[in-house]
Write a structure and sequence with these properties.
The chain is α/β, with parallel strands linked by helices. The chain has helices at 16-27, 39-51, 66-80, 103-131, 142-145, 157-177, 195-203, 208-221, 230-241; strands at residues 7-11, 31-36, 56-60, 85-88, 134-139, 182-189, 252-255. It folds into 2 domains: 7-191 and 229-255, NAD(P)-binding Rossmann-like Domain (Rossmann fold), CATH 3.40.50.720; 193-227, no CATH class. The chain has a 7-stranded parallel β-sheet with strand order 3-2-1-4-5-6-7, with helices on both faces. Strand 4 (85-88), helix 4 and strand 5 (134-139) form a beta-alpha-beta unit. Helix 1 packs across helix 9 (230-241), helix 3 packs parallel to helix 4 and helix 4 packs parallel to helix 6 (157-177). The longest helix has 29 residues, at 103-131. It starts with 6 loop residues before the first strand and ends in a 7-residue tail after the last strand. The relative contact order is 0.15. The structure holds NADP nicotinamide-adenine-dinucleotide phosphate. NADP nicotinamide-adenine-dinucleotide phosphate binds at residues 11-12, 14-18, 36-38, 62-64, 89-93, 112, 139, 141, 189, 191-192, 194-197.
Length: 262
């Protein structure tokens, strides 16, 4: 077990990529703090982890609210006395045409995707600095965070800006925190099949049938000829969280089936 005795906080862990990461890290022996917005989904993932014979607690916290994040980090620390891994996975990507976008819509996406990453990172620094080590894994995206790639998803300029910010934050934080043996890395997923991507397609006006057909057509444009699955990202989170990546910091790993090669 690669993460025996480690404590991992996973945000956005109620579903999608976050849930897959929580289960994957638990399978490797980590004690998991399942954090998300809704108690029901949190409880479901905690139960799944316990069914694996591993330990988990659920903490409801909105990543964009500093006081909620601080309270959640305190609770995690009280439970297990340490935090070794933080995976900043909570994110939103509601499509809005740029010409119609209100400042509040822009702010909300920046607050959850970017400020949330900052707030949680800050909240786990005291225990990580005291422990003289830790691993922080941030989820960026091929939207915004990979230069020179051909996707610029329509109606997501706020999201692209936030994810570009996540990459900049990752690199700067890695540089500053290396003195404490805290590593900070990012992952840029391509298109991953989750509840979130289904909601995105629906938000762009697609029917169930259109979504199924669109996914099939999209898969053909990916060199590896398939949509990504949450487990593809969860395995990369595990790599960056574990000592297998102990000499890697400030890096971005693109997990997109080769999409950005084109
Ligand atoms: P998802 O299925 O929508 O899951 C995201 C989770 O984050 C949900 O449980 C959501 O709760 C939670 N969340 C949203 N706002 C939150 C907040 N303010 N505080 C705490 N939790 C919050 O999304 P996903 O597709 O798994 O994406 C996960 C991450 O990967 C995101 O950062 C996303 O930007 C990134 N990403 C995804 C893809 C992809 O293709 N799926 C590609 C590139 C990057 P609710 O259920 O209440 O909304």
């Amino acid at each position: 077990m690669r993460l025996k005795d480690k404590v991992a906080v996973i945000t956005g862990a109620g579903r999608g990529i976050g849930r897959a990461a929580a289960l994957e890290l638990a399978r490797e022996g980590a004690k998991i703090v399942v954090s998300d917005l809704f108690q029901e989904t949190i409880d479901g993932v905690v139960a799944e982890i316990k069914a694996l014979g591993q330990q988990a607690i659920g903490i409801r916290a909105d990543v964009s609210q500093g006081s909620e994040v601080e309270r959640a980090a305190d609770q995690a620390l009280k439970q297990w006395g340490r935090v070794d891994i933080l995976a900043n996975i909570a994110g939103i990507y509601p499509p809005v045409p740029l010409v119609e976008m209100k400042a509040e819509q822009w702010d909300k996406v920046l607050d959850v995707n970017l400020k949330g990453t900052f707030l949680w990172t800050k909240a786990v620094l005291p225990p990580m600095i005291a422990q003289k080590g830790g691993s922080i894994v941030n989820i960026a995206s091929i939207d915004g965070a990979v230069l020179g790639q051909p996707t610029g998803s329509p109606e997501l300029p706020h999201y692209a800006a936030a994810k570009a910010g996540v990459l900049g934050f990752t690199r700067a934080a890695a540089m500053e925190l290396a003195q404490h043996q805290i590593r900070v890395n990012a992952i840029a997923p391509g298109s991953i099949e989750t509840e979130g991507t289904k909601a995105l397609a629906e938000g762009l006006g697609a029917s169930e049938e259109m979504i199924a057909e669109g996914m099939k057509a999209f898969a053909e444009t990916v060199p590896l000829k398939r949509f990504g699955q949450p487990i593809d990202i969860a395995k990369t989170v595990l790599f960056l969280a574990s000592d297998d990546s102990s000499y890697i910091t400030g890096q971005l790993i693109i997990v997109d089936g080769g999409f950005c090669l084109q």
